[in-house]
Amino acid sequence: MRVAIAGAGAVGRSIARELIENGHEVLLVDKEPDSIRPERVPNAEWLLADSCELSSLEEARFEHCDVVIAATGDDKVNLVTSLLAKTEFGVPRTVARINHPNNEWLFTEAWGVDVSVSTPRIMSALVEEAVSVGDLVRLFTFRKGNANLVEMVLPADSPHVGIPAGQVKWPANCALVTILRDGQVYAPDADQPLESGDELLFVAGAEVEAELEHLLSPRTHG
Fold first, then answer.
1. How far is residue 19 from each of residues 13, 15, 91, measured CA to CA in Å?
2. Alpha carbon distances (Å) from 58 to 8, 62, 203
3. Per-residue pLDDT tens for 117-145?
């Protein structure tokens, strides 16, 4: 998969390294000469260009990209980059970083954004997670599908501890996608039992979040 990342700062470089490790082809684009440091991510392509300029995106061959990630520290740049990638080059999937929570409402399909990632929201969610075992935490929203990535740490006294994931009657419009346990990632196979302290990640519609929390929380059973 070919991925272009607008913004070669710490966030962009970190994403690039992970994608390259997973076997993807990555292009880093930045308009600041000081940010063009190929030695920092030697296996990536690098381009000194402004991702808000149509001619720059043509030079970057955005039409051949499967995904464009707008990861700069400027929300205006991320919006314009996403819009151009989607409308002018038909990029199948765009992901945009949100730096300021007040701008979240702008990051929609109307601006060419398929997935928006709010750094402040994720950071606050992680803080909440540290003190809210048994509470559902929303990590971010998939704008295109009207669904959210949510997480819950399974309490020790949850009625579903020891129950195989396949035997739990999850709410409609909800899917358990990953189990994080002891630093390892487990697929939610039908026979995989849930354990106390498991971090359960779901993709769920907003309308079923309360039902999901009710299902797993010990406060609502017995």
1. 10, 6, 18
2. 18, 6, 35
3. 876 665 555 555 544 445 777 777 775 55
